[in-house]
Amino acid sequence: MSVDGPLQDDAPLPSPPAPLGAGFEELRAGNLGLRLAESAAEIDAAQALRYRVFYEEMGAHPDAATRASKRDCDAFDSVADHLLVLDHDLGNGAEAVVGTYRLIRRPSADRLGGFYSAAEYDLAPLLAYDGQIMELGRSCVASAYRTRGTLQLLWRGIAAFVFRHRIDLMFGCASLHGTDLDALAPQLSYLHANHLAPPALRPRAVADRYIAMDRMPAQAMDMRAALGALPPLVKGYLRLGGFVGDGAVLDPQFNTTDVCIVVKTDLITDKYFRHYERTAGPG
Description:
Structural class: alpha+beta
């Protein structure tokens, strides 16, 4: 799952990342910075933030070990790259972590026998894709930092990571808050009607967890209202040309209804290569 704390809607698409070949240097936006976690302490701080947002704020249900540690963590954290948003007014390390996003590339997932999302979706179409693939998840931002600028900084970081590692396809389980399917019917039906992935790239919810998304006829939907009700991060994926898989999945532990998002990065790549051709000038 990828539970996302509420962020402001309509954040702009990411600004161009550092050119190919450059290192993944910290991106800055005023007092905020974004970079990869560099220590166990910083990963621990990200897990603590995830616990505060997912469990204390958004109603997830911790088991005894999670409640005792006040950390949201699992085996995939050990093989992931962790994007961090840092407030440098608070410091330069673990004490400054105010946002996070977990990125798992295929070689890393292979070390654990597969991706996190495989518990919810049959990923065979994505695993067969001829290119580098990456799973995104566990995104959250501390309440005081849920602004347009913070979300844009996260998008910039993802774009920079995509460039650095030549990622061709990214995907992940994005969450709609709550498990009331009647309340979520407009959003689920909107996604199914307008953004269903093409068959060759369409993961399907595993059979014993499959929830049909086409819960309302198109003529009964207020498309604008349904789009507006989607979480900002899901709308961001859609603005990048993202698709959804077939079927939703209930995640009672996290009090969410999940959909599988799929984004081909060539649209982003083309956009930014054109930008660099215009602006980079002689090297």
